[in-house]
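Below is a concrete protein record.
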Amino acid sequence: MSEIAAGTAHEAYAFACMRCGHGWEQAYEIEHHVDGSGNAFVVYKADGERVPSPLSTPACANCGGHVVRIMRAGRVSTVQQLLRPPQTTAGRQEAPAEMSVATAAPSAGSGSHHWQLSDLLRPFHRR
């Protein structure tokens, strides 16, 4: 079967597993082709390797779960930046301005709370 290239697009997506909270981002090259019969088809490539469409049935690389939220690129990296330890200034740690007192203090009687990515993405869930 012969194929004719019709163009290549570049897109990136952010993913968050609603099962384990794992988040990641991936850039794709999307090649649009037309076969010898005139039928259009699309090939997705990530890091130069052919992969299935990220929009069909994404799977979590951490737990294998299929309940994965797909978002525009940058969402996961923004949350990961907020989770990094705060910068120190002259030996003193400073909390990020975005962190509220409620998230900075451990809950009473339960020890410290382990934050999952899904906890941080909860405000983005549509109701």
Notes: The two ends are 47 Å apart (CA to CA). The first strand starts at residue 3 and ends at 17.
